[in-house]
């Protein structure tokens, strides 16, 4: 008979949870509560004097056309990055899951970009596509394409999307590959015996079995796009040109750190936090229903 470990101490489970609870409180709940309180204050640029003004920061925020433009930019940016990074990573994972001689090398190269910091990834892509110095921008000019992300807002959006997608593909690739390798080969072989082609086997057998992984990555990618892409945007475009790449998280930084509006910046961070929590709740409420565990 197998022996099972029994812990008689009733406090032990709670003691094991204490480190994680402390980290969560210090790095999430405490800063979040401070941001909520600060959003009701008017402060000077140095945070030395403050005055309680209630909801005035929120009223001023939603009266700004620039904030609605940042919302639209965030919607476009987040949709493009999430869809492209998930789709490309799934394509690469399906290819890496095949019996190839160079598969280990291929997998290693796919994982490396995840170790690059967002700001470094942004600088890398900026230098590659700089309109006058970029090694990849010159061929575009030779082909007659007037590439200039410094002045053209559409080009700038394309550049930050490419950089953000490239940075996130490795993370998605790891989980998709792990999910593919956990699918029993006998299930796929049974579909092949029944006459299903490769595409039909993928969409009717493989992809439904990957739905838990896909759902998890969808939630993670939404959080990534809304928060972790700040370093890329700051390094590549700085929110420009003319605010074309100013997302909600970058506007929090621009108004608070650069503009000195600490109360208004805190109000923006609260709104952003509520939006992300709402999106996550919607995904768990409606999208998870279609997940097959």
From TrEMBL:
Residues 71-283 form the ABC transmembrane type-1 domain. One of its GO terms (cellular component) is plasma membrane. The chain crosses the membrane at residues 12-32, 67-93, 114-136, 156-180, 201-227, 266-287. GO terms for biological process: transmembrane transport. It comes from the Bacteria. It holds the Pfam family BPD_transp_1. The keyword Membrane applies. Keywords: Cell inner membrane, Cell membrane, Membrane, Transmembrane, Transmembrane helix, Transport. Part of the ABC transporter complex UgpBAEC involved in sn-glycerol-3-phosphate (G3P) import. Probably responsible for the translocation of the substrate across the membrane. This is sn-glycerol-3-phosphate transport system permease protein UgpA. It comes from Bradyrhizobium sediminis.
């Amino acid at each position: 008979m197998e022996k099972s470990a029994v812990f008689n101490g009733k406090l032990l489970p709670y003691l094991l949870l204490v480190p994680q609870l402390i980290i969560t409180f210090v790095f999430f709940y405490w800063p979040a509560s401070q941001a909520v309180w600060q959003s009701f204050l008017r402060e000077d640029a140095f945070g030395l004097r403050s005055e309680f003004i209630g909801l005035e920061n929120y009223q001023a925020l939603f009266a700004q056309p620039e904030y609605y433009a940042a919302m639209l930019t965030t919607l476009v940016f987040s949709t493009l990055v999430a869809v492209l990074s998930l789709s490309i990573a799934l394509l690469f994972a399906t290819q890496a899951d095949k019996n190839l001689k160079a598969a280990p090398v291929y997998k290693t190269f796919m994982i490396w970009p995840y170790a690059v910091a967002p700001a470094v990834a942004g600088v890398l892509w900026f230098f590659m596509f700089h309109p006058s110095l970029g090694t990849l921008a010159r061929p575009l000019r030779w082909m007659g394409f007037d590439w200039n992300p410094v002045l053209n807002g559409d080009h700038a959006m394309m550049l930050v999307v490419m950089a953000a997608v490239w940075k996130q593909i490795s993370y998605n690739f790891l989980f998709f590959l792990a999910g593919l390798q956990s699918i029993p080969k006998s299930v796929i072989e049974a579909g092949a015996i029944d006459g299903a082609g490769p595409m039909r086997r993928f969409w009717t057998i493989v992809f439904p079995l990957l739905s838990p992984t896909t759902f998890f990555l969808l939630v993670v990618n939404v959080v990534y796009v809304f928060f972790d892409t700040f370093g890329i945007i700051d390094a590549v475009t700085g929110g420009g040109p003319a605010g074309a790449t100013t997302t909600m998280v970058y506007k929090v930084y621009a108004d608070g750190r650069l503009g000195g509006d600490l109360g208004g910046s805190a109000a923006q961070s609260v709104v952003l936090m509520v939006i992300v929590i709402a999106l996550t709740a919607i995904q768990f409420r409606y999208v998870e229903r279609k997940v097959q565990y």
